[in-house]
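User: Hello, beginner here. Can you help me understand these amino acid letters and fold codes? It all follows right here:
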Amino acid sequence: MNTLTDITRATAAAPARSRERRQSVQAADTVVAVLKGLASLGGGASLTALATYLEENPAKVHRYLVSLIDGGLVTQNANTQQYTLGLETMLIGLAAIRQADPIRISEPALIRLREQLGITSFIAVMGNKGPTIVRMEEPSLPVTVNVRVGSVLSFLWSATGRVFLGMHDEPAVRTLARQEYDLLCKAQKLPASFDDLVSQMHEEISTSHCIRVSDTNLKGISAVAAPVFNYAGQLTAVLTALGASGGFDTSLTGPIAVTVREQARQISQQLGNSKLPVGK
């Protein structure tokens, strides 16, 4: 008898628990929406502006803001009455930034390039000697090239190096690139001044969102490279695909350039950069 009663009570309570779960999920969704809304509005906004942005009732949004203030995730300016992201939110963001490792995040992109297009691809970062390959993926029948993980690439002749040349404005990086330029000038006449080359590379990346080369760094090898930016909009790595020039399409609208740019955009997005347009 007691067992039947317990079953009856449990059955009657099930809909109530289900409603509570749905309400909890909806509440969590609203909290997330409020925090994302504040972030999208520059980190701070009035109640009216936030409610309008979220297309929610101001009274409802206010209730959640009060709870978020209690938790330290949001603060309210006593003078302007605007709500801003609080200390706890900033600490969460900093923890996420510390985990944003471009090498780790780029691994799936390198594998996709290998599997979808059957090409060699790698991610490079700026080392103390220049652009350095730190992660590489090759297809089952790789193109024979003398670059491997740890290889330092040319600023002037490689697609990877040209991205760094055009987008990295750190004095130490420019000094390394200038040293390479000066050495080459002693051996051969270069077609442009160093400053003109930097401007050309910057213009090409700004316009095409990638750099393309054929038979410059390695004879018979072509490459497409695209910049990867961090949350602050700074160049943090370069994603590059390469292959034998005869069968490697470097056109801007070809599958290689389109895919490399898109994968670089996705890596940048995972690093906290949301300013790059889709498909660029």
Q: What stands out?
A: The longest strand covers residues 235-244. The chain is about 50% helix and 15% strand. The mean pLDDT is 83. The radius of gyration is 26 Å.
